[in-house]
Every structure is written in structure tokens, then in C-alpha cells.
Amino acid sequence: MATVELRFSAQPEHVRTARLVAAAVARRAGVDEAVLDEVRLAVGEACSRAVGLHRGHGVVSPVKVVLTEEEKTFSIEVGDDVPGSGSGASAAGVPETGPGVEGHDAEAEGEDEMGLAVISGLVDDVKVVSGPDGGVIRMSWPTASAVPLS
Description:
- The chain is of the alpha+beta class.
- It has helices spanning 15-29, 36-56, 106-122, and strands at 2-8, 63-69, 73-79, 125-131, 134-142.
- The chain is built from three helices and five strands; from the N terminus they run E-H-H-E-E-H-E-E.
- The chain has a five-stranded antiparallel beta sheet, covered by helices on one side.
- It is globular and about 40 Å long.
- The model is unreliable at 87-106 (pLDDT under 50).
């Protein structure tokens, strides 16, 4: 299992770099060329969301991106250090309502929901989790070794 870890300060200009790194590592891992645009877009949305959360809550720690190549899958985790940041969405990335959603203003909450909706539309296997130390969006794609040869 090969892993690449990227950490960057919560600045919008670093999101582009994260997208480029994700696409390069995905290509090396064997993700189908036709899916690379989806990988780039999903990572861009997830990183933009994390940057927005950090900036909006005054968090100075870096955004974390972990890219992992496993035997049949390639996964990306984008993490933030904003407590409860993933609580506005279900595991499928569909926005929920409830007590964990408090603390966001309506506009920020709408942006979070929109970003998660875009990600869930791009990625079949996505999971959004949160905890007291922050949230993680985990996305995965099959690699060429997972596709049976005909």
C-alpha cells in the first residue's frame, strides 16, 4: 500500500496544487484516464470546502490530504480541523439537518451542502465523517487492477 500525504495552509491558491497532485498520483495508481477529471474536481471541491471551513473558523492548522493506493482501489481523504465539520452530511454526502448543523451561518451551510452534493455526484464511493477533532471526506475509485480483463 503506497501513501502520499499532502498538507497545506488554508489558502485558496493551494487547492490547485492539491488537484494536480491528486491527478498525478491517481494516474500512477492505475485509475482510468476517463475518471481523472472527476478525481480532480472532487478533490478540488473537498479541499475548497476544507479551506473555507478553516478560514471561516479561524483554524490555522493545515488542511490534510492523504492519497492511498491499495490493491484494487485508490482513495483520497481530505481532512479539516474544524470540530463537527462533517456533521452537515450523511455518509452518502447528502445534506442532513439536525443539532450538529448549528454553528454555521446559513450561507456557509449552503456552500457546504453544495460542495458535498457536487462531490457525491462525482464519486460513487464517498463517506463524510466528523468528530471532535475535525472532519474527513473519504473518496475512492477502482484502479485498473480491480477491473477484470475480458
